[in-house]
Amino acid sequence: QVQLVESGGGLVQAGGSLRLSCEASGRTFSDYAMGWFRQAPGTVREFVAGISWSGGLTIYADSVKGRFTISRDNAKNTVYLQMNSLKSEDTAVYYCTSRSGLRHGTSWLDLNNYDDWGQGTQVTVSS
Fold it and tell me: What angle do CA 110, 40, 53 make, to 5 degrees?
């Protein structure tokens, strides 16, 4: 099991930026692909971005492409989500998640294809 702790959420004005961090512990971090999901009140949890174990592959939801950047530092056991040009519709709780090599070939967008989850960090964008 991988323990995940998110940080960096907060309140920001529309057009602003935030960087979320997720620190992992418990297993070899570089063995896992990582992802970010988000969930707004009354909605389902949705995929935001994913990154392969090496960082060589990244994937984004259409709604954030060009504005958000996912990255990882395996030496620090941390994955990041840089969020720029934030919009009010980006307001949600953001969750960090991991997926093991056993999930290779499965859809990145399906939350059922992930193994461990953080507790979430709130991002609120005011218009």
Answer: 40
Candidates 64, 60, 49, 5; CA nearest to 29 is: 5
Output the DSSP codes for 12-63: EETT--EEEEEEEESS-GGGSEEEEEEE-TTS--EEEEEE-TTS--EEE-TT
Q: What is the pLDDT of residues 36-61, one digit of tens each?
A: 999 999 999 999 999 999 999 999 99
**Which residues partner with 103 through β-bridges?**
none
Q: How many CB atoms lie within 10 A of CB 76?
A: 12
Geometric angle at alpha carbon 90, from 88 and 113, rounded to 5°: 160
- Residue 62 pLDDT class (50, 70, 90 cuts): very high
Query: In whole angstroms, what is the distance from residue 99 CA to residue 85 CA?
Result: 28
Identify the residue whose tokens are 């935030």. Answer: 18
Q: Is residue 30 within 8 Å of 74, Cβ to Cβ? A: yes
